[in-house]
Structures are given as C-alpha cells and as structure tokens.
Amino acid sequence: GIQIIGVVERVPSFRKEAHIASMRRIGLADYSIHPEGNRETYAPVIQREPDIRSSHAPLGLDPWTDPVRRQAMEKACDSGMPAITGKVQLAIDKQGDAGPIMYLPVFAQGLPRDSVAQRRASLIGWVYASFLMHDFMASLYGNEVGGLAFAIYDDAIPTAATLMYANDMPPSAPPLLIRGGLSAKEYMVVAGHTWTLTLATQDEFEARFGRNIAFVIAVTGIGLSLAMALLTWFMINGRARALRLAAGMTEELRHMAQHDPLTGLPNRTLFSDRVQHELAHAKRQAGHFALVFLDLDHFKPINDNYGHAIGDVLLQQVAKRLQRALRASDTVGRIGGDEFVLLLAEVSGADAALALAEKIRHEIARPYSINGHDLSISCSLGVSIFPNDGEDEISLTKSADDAMYQAKDGGRNSVCLAT
Q1: pTM above 0.85, yes or no
Q2: Are 200 and 176 in contact (CB under 8 A)?
C-alpha cells in the first residue's frame, strides 16, 4: 500500500533563498517552495521515490501549510516517534483516492533530544511514507467472506466524510450499511491516531450463515487482529526498514555516480580516485605504475553500418575482455565513447607495462560474434609510467594520451610508450 517514500527538509525562513539556490544547483532548475508566502518555517519535499509517480507533483510542496499534515509532523517531532495523519488526498494521486501519511522525524547528529524542546531544536526534517488504503488492504493475505461489508474510518465517529476504505460499500453509502443485519465496531490507535473499523452482514452472508453473531464476532476479531498485527509490525520495524532502504538507495546512487551506465566500469571520477590512491602508494614505496589510454580503431563505421545497439554490445564485450585480461590489482575504466583507461598497479618498469599492454591489444583483436554478425576491431594504446612520464595525474594522463595518438598516427593497432 505504500505509494511513495520521501524526504521533507525543515527550512527556517532565513535559509529559504539559500535552500532554493542549492536545490537549483543540483539540477532542479525550476525548483521553488509552494504554496508561496512568507512563513516562519518551511518544510518542502526535496525527494520522492519512485519519482515516476510524482511527475505532476513537483518537488518543493510544503506539507507544513496543510493543518492535517502539520499536526502529524509536529506530533512526530515532539514524540520522537512516527506519527500518522488523518485522511488526506495524496499530492501524487489525482484519482480521488485518499489515505494516511506516516512521518518519521529526523534529528541532527550529536545534538540532545531527550526533551520536547531539545527535539524541536535539533529537528532537521522528516522521512515520510504515503499510503492508499485500498492498495494497503488489497495486500492483505486471505480470502474475504462474501456478504460482509468491512470499512475503516479516520475518526472515532464513522461518517461518509471520514471513510477511508470499504470492501463492499460505495463511498456515498451511509456508514454501517446494516440493512437489518448484524454489525460490529472496533477502535484502534495507529501512531497516535484513532481509526474505527466496522463490519456489517449483508443479505448474501445471512443467506449462507444465518444471523450467527458468534461467527460475525469471530470474523471481526480475525480481521482486526490481522490489520493490527500488520500495522504494529510496520511501526516496530519501520525505522529499521527505512534505514536499510536508505542504505541500499545510497549505495545504488553511489554506484551510479561512480560507474559507466553501459559497461559498469568505473567512470572518470572513480578512476581518478583510484589513480590518486596508487600515486600515494607508489610515492611511499618508491614504486612504479602505468597509466594506459586505449582507443578503439574505426569504431564509428560499426555504429554506422550495424546500428548503435550492436555498437553498445561490442563496447560491453570489450569491457569484459579488458577486465579478464587485467590483474586483480589493476583498474579499467571507460571515460566516454570508445575510449578506455587502464591503471596497471605496481609494475616493475616500462617493459612489464608494455607486455601487459600488448596482451590487451591481442585480446581486443580477437573476433566478436554479436547477434549473428561477425565483427573485428583493433585498438591503439598509449602508456605512461610513474614517475618517468609524470609525477601527478595530470602529467601522466597527458603523456598517455599523447602516446595513444602517436600509436594512431603510426598506423593504429599498436602500443606506444610515452618516453
């Protein structure tokens, strides 16, 4: 039943403009806080996952301006525990369905939060999860007993306005649609919010079971126990699950930021980080390592003759061959197009680096079979050695790049040493 998991940031009024500027710097050019207006505190939504459902609800929506949402957000802050709203229309859903939103407070690290005042002072935002009750109830296991009208109301008093879910009752119907049958009503408190659950027999039920109040009570008890157990389990495990989800999302985002999406190889950023580590290690040990620039020869005609899909598969197969040809201590990255870079760690000297580069050249030159097409391609490689050809990343990179173009100028399909 969870529709969205998102993040709300608490923004004091004096930080509003800086907050908007920082969000625009990360690529949200049209970002703004809405609804507009001057307020002492803003609480804009700064992230939603999955964002595909949020295309018509841009980031920056301030739930603090809605009394129902604000009440739950304040309760979560003051208690330090999750709090749930009353029935609200979800911003990401324009179908008319409503549901609750659960807010979990986020406090600044290292600040005390033992009292309400301390929690208010250290609050930096909320993580939230929004629900649609029909989807949540549909996820419960088990078969419904026919002829029973089950409903959930967002209040201690069931009315059409507070109806959140009904399995066998149109939203416009009056509450407790009994029609002379039996009914049961129960109350439950979810994250500090009261819900009323009702069960009423219909003609189909009474035709099958009669007016057996014991059976109605039993079914009511089972249904309420199941709903309560699931909600309690979610509340108890919600923080741990949210942390695991956040950790997984963080790791996924980190991987995306550091790797080429087509080949899965380290991109320029991660490769540069590996070079810096190897530089520091080589300087401490007075050792050597090699930087290799590799460019595929005549790759453009493959794209032109066979299409970019075939070209992409060829790049993926080249990446796999490079990984197989290198040692575990080495790194291969893709820096764009048909260009690859290789970091050969702890080589004994130029001869060892050239031998590895020749091995790679022969590996790349072996034929490829892609979607019924037999393809061949060669590569040109330029090699620079630390510290002979440079004592920092920039100079080593330039030396290897110059050597690669010398290999191309010399007829391609060859290895050229910078020195």
Answers
A1: no
A2: yes
Q: Which helix (H) or strand (E) holds 98?
A: strand 98-99
Catalytic residues: 338
What is the CA 412 to chain-centroid distance, rounded?
43
Fill in the amino acid letter for 341.
V
Strand order in the sheet with 415-417: 331-336, 339-344, 289-297, 378-386, 415-417
Long-range contacts formed by 278-282: CB under 8 A, 24+ apart: 278/343, 278/345, 278/386, 279/386, 279/392, 279/393, 281/345, 282/346, 282/386, 282/387
pLDDT reported for residue 143: 53
> Is the confidence at residue 14, as pLDDT, over 50?
yes
Residue 308, CA atoms < 13 Å, CB-side half-sphere: 2
Is 163 within 8 Å of 151 (Cβ atoms)?
yes
Q: What is the mean pLDDT of residues 380-384?
A: 96
**Angle ∠(262,264,309) on CA atoms, nearest 5:** 20
What are the residues whose beta carbons fall under 8 Å from the beta carbon of 264, sequence distance 6 or more? 319
DSSP bridge partners of 333: 341
At 69, give phi and psi (nearest 5°).
-65, -40
User: Each residue of 271-285: pLDDT tens digit?
Assistant: 999 999 999 999 998
Runs of H (alpha helix) within 176-329: 203-209, 213-258, 268-285, 300-306, 308-325
Long-range contacts of 162-169 (CB under 8 A, 24+ apart): 162/87, 162/196, 164/87, 164/98, 164/99, 164/100, 164/133, 164/195, 165/133, 165/134, 165/136, 165/137, 167/137, 168/202
Which pLDDT belongs to residue 177?
A: 44
The predicted structure's pLDDT at residue 51: 61
* Higher pLDDT among residues 171 and 86, named by residue: 86
* Angstrom distance (rounded) from CA 316 to CA 323: 11
**Tens digit of pLDDT for each residue in 221-241?**
666 666 666 666 665 566 666
- Kindly state the average pLDDT of the residues 68-81: 91
